[in-house]
Amino acid sequence: MPDVWVYNGRAYDLTEWIAKHPGGPFFIGRSKNRDITSLVNASHVAPEKIERLLERYALDRPAVPEDVHPKNNAPAFLFTPDFNSWRDTPRYRFSDREDLLHRLKARLKEPALAARVRRADRVFNLVAALVLLGYFAVQGLWLARPGWLAAAGWYALPVFVLAMVALRSALAGYGHYAIHRAQRGPTRLLANAFDMNYVALTLVTIDGHIMLHHPHTQSEVDIKRNVFTMMMGLPRLLRIPVHTLHKFGHLIVGMPLRIVDVAWITRKVGVDEAYGGTRNAMAHFAGSALVRILLIGELVIFVATGNWLAWTLQFVVTLWVSTFLIVASHDFDEDVDIAPEKPSGPEQGPGLCDGEWAAHQIEKSYDLKVIGNRYVDCFLSAGLSSHRVHHALPFQRSGYANIACEDMVREEAAKSGIEWLPAKSFLTDRLPKLARGYLTTPSRQAQDRGWGVLREHVSPSAWKNGFDYAKAGFGIGTV
């Protein structure tokens, strides 16, 4: 397949630009053989400057189906079998200077608002540093077990577990925004805080989150809505234990193997292709490896000191809270027809979507609340308390910057006729609905064959699926 990037229906070869990209070479390298129109317009304050730069690398011809990888250069199992990137990638018009996205970007230039955003970014970073100190302090206290804590006995265990769940979610919230920043310098390491809740691997989810989820929210391209794809093939009563074991395998074996695998593939194809040189590649791999060493090291220390129960409980609760948080801010659990009508043949290319891109982002996203304070919830919700602003302005550097901009975004959204709905409670609204939907829905096999609960769980094939899924966590195939 030729080295081609598609923008506004035209073909470009950005190979020479990979190492020069100010946001880091990863983004350009991974977007090869994709339509990057929405990505460029969503991720840059001034995409018109990017358009001028792109013209240096134009191939002076329209894009053709052969320019676009049918599965977006991503694992095929993340998409439906008949998905085709050329045909099914949504396309929006970004040329209207008066649309919502352009109005939002224009208002970000207001001096007072720009100053508030800069202050918000600094405070966000400071709070993240305090969270990190608290994270190590809580674990250190538990392992040291001073007299006053030892006297609390079993009463202290639930407090420790809840504290670790909150702190891991908070660190993932910082990582959530770090992966949206330019992947250069210390950010390449700090972005791996996204991994601290046991769910993600930043090395690969930067691609799925920033380049496939944000530009194409709730379309067939959006692989975030397929978080539970594999698990939904299991019988209902097996999902919690099997998925937990699957993720434990990811923690101790699967993720480290995946890091090595990606490093080997990158070396094999040439590091310049995706990372812009050996130094950039090693920085990405080193950050992921350090976080893996930290997570596995914690497990070893807790088990060696007889604190295996405390570690296990915080692992299981953190894993499931974080897994549901991932899908809580969108209606992935509902069947919604949001894709543009497909053209009759792939030679016609992808069809244009009705409506504005920013309006679609706001309408298809939820804000979440945990305790009701947006600044605290920004961390407790892994960065999702001001989620609609985040989706309309994904290039902003922090959740606090989104909170600073929320009144402005709400005002401009109202001009476009968009109702600004109240934030949804994760604990009392989204979590119960998601748990019912994902944990009580019959497996696909049971639905296809009309099986009841008993038949679903005694089927030899069901147990085989469960065994295979748990075992897969100890390999690299599902990461």
Automatic annotation (TrEMBL):
One of its GO terms (biological process) is long-chain fatty acid biosynthetic process. PROSITE patterns: CYTOCHROME_B5_2 (PS50255). InterPro entries: Cyt_B5-like_heme/steroid-bd, Cyt_B5-like_heme/steroid_sf, FA_desaturase_dom, Fatty_acid_desaturase. It comes from the Bacteria. GO terms for cellular component: membrane. The keyword Protein biosynthesis does not apply. The chain crosses the membrane at residues 123-142, 148-167, 282-302. GO terms for molecular function: oxidoreductase activity, acting on paired donors, with oxidation of a pair of donors resulting in the reduction of molecular oxygen to two molecules of water. Residues 6-63 form the Cytochrome b5 heme-binding domain. Keywords: Membrane, Transmembrane, Transmembrane helix. Pfam families: Cyt-b5, FA_desaturase. This is Cytochrome b5 heme-binding domain-containing protein.
